[in-house]
């Protein structure tokens, strides 16, 4: 089967840019895909960061510090952009108005005003596919949770818990970086960095919080600069949000956890849904394990544990007896994006990457969470 090339430029040659490039190099891992990405250009303010790309991808023909020059290239169809949050509004709007499809990192703007600028550009170019990076729901267990709920197995929802936990900032001697400064990361702190992962599935299932009570923590107030001097660490390390969600004729609680300081968690994404007829939970802590419970009035209440096979949204060469991991989730997310670029609404499977509208709602929620924490009150969302 001949494949349609999607020619990419990468803006931001850091960790996640390399993850995308690695997924491109593994594209032969996928079976029966019509789309195939090809990296033809890279852009970074530090040209040395681009050298890793040029040494591994002979398809790259353009290397630049200036993203504007990259956007002027007719041979580029799409852009992956991974830059600090304060640059999102400027770069994302320019990418979209240049007619390039965009997969951008969350949170799609440093604040609500910046996000509104991105949405305005999207409204001007409905022909451009714009999506927000969120790979973790592409774990087979995440997709199983989604299917379990959509099939009506839960019945009346009792409560939902979702979160993303890691301990990368547990060490107070870790040097400060751009995510610890309000000027580059924004006031959302860990919410802007981790929140789209947590909310991707709940929002896709239609569970929009109507209010929020938030508790935010800045646990490490100073961190060392490169020269060893201590400077203020300005952004929130941990966030716990308790929300009310209205579904059909009733209201249920949903708790959302976004934590950079969660001892014992290297990188844990989870979701747990409890219902009157069925319950389901999955965590990347145990990526092969899905727990479900189906309950009938007067019947037994017993969790069933399923050992998950390698069953991804897009088929791969991997046998189903093997384990699914983070790199596989990245590959699946990119397969979904390229599929949508090539096939639009006729993509091969229905689960898309996070949408701009879902990203926009996170801004509404996180802005309300900041107000809730500051005032110590429940804040209603518009």
Put the structure in a nutshell.
This protein has 382 residues and is an alpha/beta fold. 31% of the residues lie in helices and 26% in strands. A nine-stranded mixed beta sheet has the order 16-15-14-13-7-12-11-8-17.
Structure in words:
This protein has 382 residues and is an alpha/beta fold. It has two domains: 4-132, Rossmann fold, CATH 3.40.50; 136-375, Dihydrodipicolinate Reductase, domain 2 (2-Layer Sandwich), CATH 3.30.360. The chain has ten helices and 17 strands. It has helices spanning 15-25, 47-56, 67-71, 88-97, 112-124, 140-150, 182-185, 190-204, 326-343, 356-375, and strands at 4-11, 35-43, 62-64, 78-81, 101-104, 130-132, 157-165, 209-217, 222-224, 230-232, 238-247, 250-259, 268-275, 278-283, 289-294, 304-307, 379-380. The strands form three sheets. The chain has a nine-stranded mixed sheet with strand order 16-15-14-13-7-12-11-8-17. The chain has a six-stranded parallel sheet with strand order 3-2-1-4-5-6, with helices on both faces. It has a two-stranded antiparallel ribbon with strand order 9-10. Helix 2 links the parallel strand 2 (35-43) and strand 3 (62-64). The radius of gyration is 21 Å and the shape is globular. Residues 144-281 form the GFO/IDH/MocA-like oxidoreductase domain. One of its GO terms (molecular function) is oxidoreductase activity. Keywords: Oxidoreductase.
